Amino acid sequence: MRIMGVMRGWPPRVRVLAVVLALAVLGATGWLGYRVFGPDDSCAPGVVSRDGECVGVTDGSYAFGEEYLRDVFGRVAMENAEVESSGLPYVTVAFVLPFTDPDPVQKDHVLTQVQGAYLAQYRANHRENEAPPLIRLVLANPGERSVWWEPMVDQLAEMARSPEDNLRVVTGFDVSIPENKSALRELTDEHGIPVVTGPVTADDIGNSPEEPDAFPGLVKVVADSGDQAEALIDFAGGVDPERTLLVADQREDDNYVASLREVFRARTEGTPRTEEPFTSPEDYNQEGNLPNVFDRMVNNICDAETIDTLYFAGRPVQLRLFVNALGRRGCQDQTYDVMTISAASTLATDDELDLDALRSGVEVIYTAHGHPEEWSGPDAPATGGSEEQYDDFLTLIDDAGLTGRVNLADGRTMIMHDAVRTAVTGIRNATVDDVTIPALSDISEGWPQVRGEDNRVAGVTGWICLDNYGRAHNKAVAVVRLRAGEGDTTEIAFEGVAWPEGAPPPADCAVANRN
In 10 A of CB 313, how many CB atoms? Predict the structure, then answer.
């Protein structure tokens, strides 16, 4: 079933008015959009119920039954209606997230990320001198843990073939799991659709000199897990291996965990004590028996009196359980730094985090994809990003009507804005002369030109300069420290900017030869 299929035959003015009326009815009905236009035996046009979960693709007129998404989805729907009624050429960009994930912490991050996508769409359509083509944004839900990725990919592939939809790039994806890896491989390798991922960091999801065509046309705008870990350790001044211990999830079917575990293992090789292992449940959002496991583990850590730095290779729920267990430790006179990478950003909004643990001499130091203080102050890097881009982003938030609605502390709004902005850059770079709807292959083949002083993407999170494998070369990594704030609040303290290559990029954003 085609997105906006009911409305396409209507005159432009009528389509815009229809969306306005649908959003006005929203408060009374509790439903977005398509229910207004006629009955449907599924969740909504383009969205079907699978085991009670509404999955599929919408233009924003249906918020997958999620109240917290109604405002930003409504804004996307309004922007899309304006695009379709403009009479100007436009293409479609799809944004993929598990919009029906029931976990409260994940809901917070889904909201901030889709806000970033909308801001990039608004920028493309209103602040770039009417550069063609305009951008229509659709929102694709593969379900909780992306279990319904296969029918979603089929739907997106049909939209890429459709002369009505003209889907040119798929963006989004925020977690490194096998389901997302399979979806990305099928989108790129099977269907030839260019993809720009958000915070997907696993080293084995992406192209490399060893596997240059593993995911043809895939772009990653964040540093990989290995690059983040190396940048973090180097930023800390090279932690004495004698004082470190690795705490690592042993699950092999988690791309994020596996890649991070290997990097930390290499950094702790030859240390006095072997790693402390644990195994998370198949559903990594569940606790299982890990509170008991971590309590016993912490006893062992207390026995190692020389240890004060703990590398943690695991998901956010397990990180929270481990930090809480450290707060209950018997050796309260010992202090610990827990070091990990970007998935830890969810910890700041986790209501089950024991803040007294953070007040007991335990601090969590981790990498973030961006931070509001990253490019300001006397110590800000001279290259790799700029305060000007961040200030412009704040103005964009105002212009798009999201003032006071966006939380920028964890960087997720900013990184998803940069991912969608990179997708738009790729589309418009392939749009030349009278070709306003570029071929999918032209977009993919143009990725290596997204670098250099004139062609880089000046992202809010830092410059995006792609290497020949679609990876952001030497991308800035914010280093932050999680602390307890006043009362029941947390504080994300900015420590500085780290670089996978050990130093900021040159002014011309040149990509080093790694071959």
Answer: 29
- Dihedral, CA of residue 406, residue 482, residue 284 and residue 296, to nearest 10: -160
Element (H, E) at 74: helix 70-85
**Which residues, 6 or more positions from 29, have their beta carbon under 8 angstroms from its beta carbon?**
35
Q: CA 168, CA 446: separation in Å to the nearest integer?
A: 13
Share of the chain above pLDDT 90, in %: 80
The SS3 call for residue 35 is helix
- Looking at 92-219, list the stretches that DSSP marks H as alpha helix, in order from N- to C-terminal side: 104-126, 149-161, 178-185
Residue 12, preceding peptide bond in cis (omega within 30° of 0): no
Beta bridge partners of 50: 53
Distance (Å, rounded) from C-alpha 459 to C-alpha 414? 8
Determine the Cα–Cα distance for residues 98 and 342; give it in Å rounded to an integer: 19
Q: In terms of Cα–Cα distance, which of 172, 168, 155 is closest to 89?
A: 168
Q: What are phi and psi of 25, to 5 degrees?
A: -75, -20
The model's pTM: 0.90
**Residue 311 φ then ψ, to 5°:** -80, 130
d(CA 336, CA 329): 11
Give the side-chain half-sphere CA count within 13 A for 286: 8
**Mean pLDDT for the chain overall:** 90
220-266 pLDDT, tens per residue? Answer: 999 999 999 989 988 988 678 889 999 999 998 888 999 899 989 99
Would you call 452 helix, strand, or coil by DSSP?
A: helix
> Partners of 496 in the beta sheet?
479
Helix (H, G, I), strand (E, B) or coil at 488: coil
* C-beta of residue 302 within 8 angstroms of C-beta of residue 334: yes
H, E, C per residue of 123-137? HHHHCCCCCCCEEEE
Q: How far apart are CA 54 and CA 247, in angstroms?
A: 37
Instruction: Check residue 89 and report its DSSP letter.
Output: -
